[in-house]
Design goal:
Layout: H1 4-21, H2 29-32, H3 43-67, H4 70-96, H5 100-124, H6 126-131, H7 133-152
Length: 156
């Protein structure tokens, strides 16, 4: 059935988003007390950006899966699983562990994973890979933001 790859990808993305969101408390005293750069978007912007990015990731994965051969599908599943795990890990490293430095390490790994996911996806479908570019760009922006926060808030 043609819709199954999309549904499976959507479930995986939704599960990762839910687990990651469980760690985030942007209203915590700890987070509000962090020194942040002037160019940090308002808190509401993060909630506005992620749903369309998640939808794009799910669409891209479903489309690439539909176009891929058996070996490529295995590689796609592995790349997506690692990527979603790293996306989730960032929330736990930064917010739950209250560690901008651990968050920075996580987001750098996520950036590398994004590149791998895009390259793996492109082997099956270039359009699906291109759809991942806004996600990768947002993550690069988040890496720069995280790096600045880590710099402004060194451990005591």
């Amino acid at each position: 059935m043609r819709w199954q790859p999309y549904a499976g990808a959507a479930l995986a993305v939704a599960a990762a988003a839910t687990v990651g969101a469980a760690a985030v408390d942007a209203n915590s005293a700890w987070y509000r007390g962090l020194a942040t750069p002037r160019w940090q978007p308002p808190r509401w912007a993060f909630g506005a950006v992620w749903p369309p990015l998640h939808a794009t990731i799910a669409w891209s994965a479903g489309r690439a899966w539909s176009q891929a051969g058996e070996r490529e599908r295995t590689e796609l599943v592995a790349a997506l699983t690692v990527n979603l795990s790293l996306r989730t890990a960032w929330s736990w490293a930064f917010f739950a562990a209250r560690s901008p430095r651990a968050g920075l390490v996580s987001t750098l790994l996520l950036d590398a994973s994004n590149l791998h996911l895009i390259r793996t996806t492109a082997r099956s479908d270039r359009r699906a890979a291109a759809a991942l570019l806004p996600y990768a760009a947002w993550c690069l922006f988040a890496t720069a933001l995280n790096a600045r926060i880590a710099r402004y808030n060194p451990r005591p």
